[in-house]
Amino acid sequence: MPYFVDVILPLPLDKRFTYEVSEEEATFLYPGMRVAVPFGKSKIYTGIAANIHQRPPEVYEAKPIHQILDKEALITNNQLKFWQWISTYYMCAEGDVLRAALPGAFLLESEGVIQLKNKEHLSETELNDDEFLLVEALQGQSSLKIQEVMKLLDKKTVLPIINRLIEKEVLVLNQEIYEQYKPKKTRFVKLSENYRDEASMHELLDSLSRAPSQRDIILTYFSLTAKSNKPLKLKNLLKESKASPGTLKALIDKGILEEFYQEIDRVSFSGETTSKEIVFSKFQQKAFSEIKEHFAGNKVGLLHGITSSGKTEIYIQLIKEVLAAGKQALYLLPEIALTTQLIHRLQHYFGDKVLIYHSKYSVNERVEVYRKILYNPGSGQVIIGARSSIFLPFTNLGLVVVDEEHESSFKQYDPAPRYHARDAAVVLGSYFKANILLGSATPSLESYSNAQHHKYGLVELNRRFGDVLVPEIEIVDIKTKHKKKRMTGHFSDRLLEEIKRTLKEDEQVILFQNRRGFSPILECNTCGHSPQCPNCDVSLTYHANNNQLRCHYCGYHIAMQQKCMACHSTDISTKGFGTEQIETELKALFPDHKIARMDQDTTRGKYAFDKIIGAFEQQEIDILVGTQMVTKGLDFRHVNLVGIMNADNLLNFPDFRAHERSFQLMLQVAGRAGRTKKRGKVLIQSYNPNHQIIQQVSTGDYAAMYKEQLEERYNYKYPPYYRIIRFTLKSRDYSTNNTAADWLAKSLTNVFGEYVLGPEYPPVARIRNEYYKNILLKIPQQQSLEKTKEVANKILLSFKSIGAFRSIRVVVNVDPV
Ligand code: ADP
Ligand code: ZN
Ligand code: ZN
């Protein structure tokens, strides 16, 4: 009887593929090992062996696998189970999940491109003949396709060779572009080996008796290195010894001191941890005990704690206990809240038990974390990561913390799998019977309603730590201010007064504007035309720094126009405003103060974000203007004033969650003010000062917001009362897209009746020259989710079989946010 293996391929296929293996291979092979398999005419992919059996496939003849790539499983059984859950729940291919779940370096394929990683490293690495040939070829050219490697070595089975070289860190696969950013290198000095022992040290000092300034440097070196074991920066030695660079150079030339360069990795761990016990306030203590009670009852905990109430310290205490039991803790955060600040805070307690998994990390760094988790789970580990860290190979998970659980960025938008990391983490945790804690100052309606219905255990913490008061919130009616001519640009007189007062007291200001760019839209005052993106149905946005009009959807840009493109009138003006314009106005208003901006445009490199945060922390910046990025989890000691430039564009966003989101954003950004004894101040500028959400923000009244929004959701049939699946049809052909959308909507309506909405054009109905149309399926609580999805999948299958619709892509989004 032949043996077969079902393989998950990293492709959007709706099934696993079955391959043939020899009896010998079958005994060696375990589920979760990687196998190289042929697919299609000439391609080779890395797939994952899922199960080994003796049932031949019915509709095709199984091809033999190419090669087994691992000696032991790289994917755990729980991961395989989890992938299957994600693929079923979020209605996507298992192959899509595979791609999202594994660092790219694990997935060699014949289309891949390899490069040499580290030339200096090579001499120490032992290479066999094939490896040597390959490395030699790569020294001549910068990269090779894997297919070219097959030709070069005249072999078909090259993946194992490449794999080995990647493991030896000789090669890298599909190197990402942002890797090319080189972190800053710093100069360090150390004493030469020759003078390290007692006797030669004395000899050295004696020999320098006639060069007192050189002798001083050496003495300073001893005193500085005695205090700490950290490498000594050349700059610090100069400063402390008050010597001239020439004197220092003389010591280096004599070979007494040695100079070396080292990268300053901002997240690497410096070696010092604290054994300091956390002493909880009585409110924290109470919350902590309540959380433990819910855990004891096997309930997911929801910690609703206002900003600065000390939630993080509670997480730390919970993590401590899990690590003490030798288990793993996963600390999930939205990407932009995953800051150096927070990482340092955790490293302070947990040292090198902290592992970080982040999309800004290179493929190789991610591979390293993956392996550490797979091979050393017993040592106790805390993994801090953004949403994709739920895919790591946990074996021993004791705790999952989802911080800022209300954040919509936990949901992956594109590509599939369109999973919600918070919801998936709850499922993942259940495989391990791990404790799960969701935390937020402004929980999502979904989670809070789960708590109200006793599905989750609710814990409230509504005092700031250390008797710090919540900031005072003042609403400024800018409609009236405009009428009374009390506005300077986009600043009301009140906001300017408060900024001046704050700066005078040597404190810092954060200004929040939820739009980047200078002023979103250019408009002709004669004919009303505003320049549009040729590829998308949106107006172009003006960016002052490079004097361009840009599309935020596709990146299209043209030079700023002096005349209307339609009627050639020169009477054009800008409407709306973004962060860049606020920055420009501020520079004119406060020329003597340092102003910085934080948004997508200013934080592109790996370290750009950290640089701004660092400078702000060090008070090198007085006023920080930013988008959402300034609202997340940052803890600054000297921010006393927060200004929300315009609350209205948040509230008017066309989405059923817009009000909930505005409330969350405004309270989060308000929470950045006054985190020390001195009470902070928040100013909200708005044309609708009486809007219920603004009123609720001003009193921090979550309960009122929750009640009111929940009623709306009930009336309009939205989550948490109804679940939603959104189907988006995309095509370059406008009319076929419409026809197809009508067909799909009709087929769904036949089964689900009034619960199907659309087809409708989304607010931006064309992006990169593709037309979009949406259909919404609402699922009432009593209706089975599984059955609904089964039926929907059947309809989608028939849809795909219609030849005329072949060019249409259907994107399915379960629980869209
Ligand atoms: P949150 O996460 O709720 O916004 P944090 O955990 O950041 O709040 O706490 C706010 C501030 O109070 C931080 O600077 C933190 O170090 C401090 N803090 C919180 N709890 C304690 C504690 N038990 N002992 C000492 N400092 C604490
Ligand atoms: Zn015009
Ligand atoms: Zn565009």
TrEMBL record:
Binds 2 zinc ions per subunit. Residues 559-714 form the Helicase C-terminal domain. The keyword Magnesium does not apply. Its cofactor is Zn(2+). It catalyses: ATP + H2O = ADP + phosphate + H(+); Couples ATP hydrolysis with the unwinding of duplex DNA by translocating in the 3'-5' direction. GO terms for biological process: DNA recombination; DNA replication initiation; DNA replication, synthesis of primer; double-strand break repair. The keyword Hydrolase applies. Zn(2+) 1 binds at C524, C527, C564, C567. This is Replication restart protein PriA.
